[in-house]
């Protein structure tokens, strides 16, 4: 092949490439970096729904904890976030109080995480103190303190059930666990959803987190979406009145009492003004809220400011009043 022929071929190839670039259908390829960490993120709609329902939870939980502790406090919804479980485990502060809560009907778990600096003021208030103590105290909890915080976790679970409106399922609080075993509750590469709250109590500010593995989150979102069609019915939707509203519309006798307590006759005869009658009932055993003698709820004595009150716990077993 001659040199002239080679130059001619090169010019033909160059002209062909220029003609292809001028074709209207020839679009340049766009290449973008892919972030696989963004896969599986919440949609904006689901994020808004979760935010709204947990803002309501924060208000109700603040009221319930205020009555339970007998001290003023503030609970604020702080943030909604998602990140891989391994990243979350590495970010948990040492000695944090971590308790899993399992669903009664589905093999899934929600994790409650509380800043250790909030734990000690709560325990001090429940033990009759003023919530004070060493600032930023960090140590392991005693067995009694573990039992007290288990009761607080139960209170959180009950308020979460009320906020989520999940009557067919209940949260069962389990014993405290270490952060190192959190990976047992979801796959190592799975993302968890964090709902963060800020709590201020007795001059101490700390964080409380609800951690949702993917299975639990899907159940919760499905429950929220089941509630949404009812809210769109406008005038035809009548919200269920609260327990207080229903009581105000009815006339019946309500009592908070300890049932089946036996007292010796000699103890009754010796009673005088100012004397103390020992009922020999464990303090941790709840009483009952009765309506015309029928048990309705478990109840424990509390105070609301300067007034005596009863805090309701679990609903009693089905009785005759429930069908009326």
UniProtKB/TrEMBL annotation:
Keyword Nuclease tagged: no
Functional summary from the UniProt entry: FliM is one of three proteins (FliG, FliN, FliM) that forms the rotor-mounted switch complex (C ring), located at the base of the basal body. This complex interacts with the CheY and CheZ chemotaxis proteins, in addition to contacting components of the motor that determine the direction of flagellar rotation.
Chain intervals for the UniProt region annotation (Disordered): 9-32
Example of a GO biological process term: bacterial-type flagellum-dependent swarming motility
Annotated membrane topology: Peripheral membrane protein
Family: Belongs to the FliM family.
Protein's name according to its UniProt entry: Flagellar motor switch protein FliM
Keyword Membrane: yes
Cellular location(s): Bacterial flagellum basal body; Cell membrane
Residue ranges of every copy of the Flagellar motor switch protein FliN-like C-terminal domain listed in the record: 246-314
Organism field: Silvibacterium bohemicum
Molecular function in Gene Ontology: cytoskeletal motor activity
InterPro entries the UniProt entry points to: CheC-like_sf, Flag_FliM, FliN-like_C, SpoA-like_sf
Highest taxon of the lineage: Bacteria
Main location: other
Keywords: Bacterial flagellum, Cell membrane, Cell projection, Chemotaxis, Cilium, Flagellar rotation, Flagellum, Membrane
GO cellular component, one term: bacterial-type flagellum basal body
């Amino acid at each position: 092949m001659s040199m002239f022929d080679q130059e001619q071929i090169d010019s033909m190839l160059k002209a062909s490439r220029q003609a292809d670039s001028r074709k209207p259908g020839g679009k340049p390829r766009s290449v973008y970096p892919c972030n696989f960490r963004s896969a599986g993120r919440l949609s904006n709609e689901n994020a808004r729904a979760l935010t709204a329902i947990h803002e309501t939870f924060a208000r109700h939980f603040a009221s319930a904890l205020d009555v339970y502790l007998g001290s003023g406090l503030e609970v604020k919804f702080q943030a909604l976030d998602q990140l891989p479980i391994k990243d979350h485990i590495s970010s948990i502060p040492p000695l944090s109080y971590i308790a899993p809560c399992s669903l009664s009907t589905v093999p899934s778990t929600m994790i409650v995480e509380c800043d250790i600096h909030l734990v000690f003021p709560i325990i001090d208030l429940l033990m009759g103190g003023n919530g004070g103590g060493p600032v930023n105290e960090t140590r392991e909890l005693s067995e009694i303190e573990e039992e007290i915080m288990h009761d607080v976790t139960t209170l959180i679970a009950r308020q979460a059930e009320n906020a989520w409106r999940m009557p067919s399922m209940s949260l069962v609080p389990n014993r405290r666990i270490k952060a190192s075993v959190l990976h047992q509750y979801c796959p190592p590469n799975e993302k968890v959803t964090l709902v963060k709250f800020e709590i201020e109590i007795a001059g101490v500010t700390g964080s409380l987190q609800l951690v949702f593995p993917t299975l639990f989150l899907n159940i919760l979102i499905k429950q929220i979406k089941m509630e949404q069609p009812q809210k769109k019915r406008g005038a035809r939707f009548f919200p269920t009145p609260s327990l207080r509203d229903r009581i105000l519309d009815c006339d019946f006798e309500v009592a908070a009492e300890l049932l089946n307590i036996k007292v010796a006759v000699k103890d009754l005869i010796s009673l005088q003004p100012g004397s103390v009658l020992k009922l020999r009932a464990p303090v941790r055993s709840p009483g009952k809220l009765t309506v015309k003698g029928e048990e309705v709820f478990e109840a424990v004595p509390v105070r609301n400011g300067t007034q005596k009150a009863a805090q309701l716990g679990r609903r009693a077993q089905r009785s005759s009043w429930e069908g009326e």
